[in-house]
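Example (one chain per record):
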Amino acid sequence: MSAEDPVTVSADDAEALCRAVLEAAGAPGASALAQARQLVAADLCARPSHGLQRLPTLVERIHNGVLDPAAVPAVSRRGAALDVDGRNGFGPVALWAAVEAARPIARGDGVALAGVRASGHIGMLAPYVEAIAREGLIALLLTTSEALVHPAGGSTALVGTNPIGIGVPADPEPFVLDMSTAAISAGEIIAHRERGEALPEGRAVASDGTPTTDPGAALEGAISPFGGAKGYALGLGLELLVAALTGTALGRDVSGTLDVTDPVTKGDVLVVASPGHGAAHGAALAAYLDELRASPTAPGVERVLVPGDRLRATSRRRRREGIPYPSETWRRLVRLEGAPHG
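Predicted structure:
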């Protein structure tokens, strides 16, 4: 096997390595499992930007004292509103605590809103909103990030990538949307650099504001908003909304999901709601999604997909066949497992 050949690893083996690394760094078993599953879920969906390539950063943040691997989130309630203090722990631990607290409120009162702060990177949004939708509830999830995106017409990174996740119950599979308001994520740029691949055009600008396909130049510059001014406006609106609801930072004051030295200052907002008109309307939603899938295609397109279809298909295939990792990435993770901790 050459250095360029990928290493194919089962999801179970990837999760086991991740758990071992995190537990050696001080994470209790349940917290290590929650974080590991979230990282592996991204790799199963072919989203390496949110996968195990983030593990070294998490470990270094633990060693630097800005991430507490044993933190237990504190949840308080005021009516249908929840405040979740992640206490500088793992993002998935705090977000799942928000999910657990919000679901019974939504079932009883119709809707629950949770604001999450002092919580690490939560990873892909799809696993959270899909799990909620599979229980017959509607989910809306928002999160902010470091200032990585330039405003429309600008060249300096001032806005977060600010993803949005939506989960809606439908048969046989829920509708799941997980998208960033940026043209590409910082993690995807890093993944392209790891693979030695150029970026697609229109995704980023260099430090002088000129468009670039070089991942290194993009990391020194800024990511472009998707859809130009519309993506910029949506990303900015979500950033203001999350910051206002959680009391977290804005723009260049957001930190802690990419670096290894700064406290986390981003926020997350989760809304969980009960569907208003029961199973009959759920059947109409499913029929509409099937109509979209069966609709005529453009030339050269095999079939129309609904958001979530490709992620699920990729995840199922990789569970059967294994997850391909760049060989150097996997060797680095294995070395991390054997490295001294503390």
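Caption: The CA atoms of residues 25 and 342 lie 6 Å apart.
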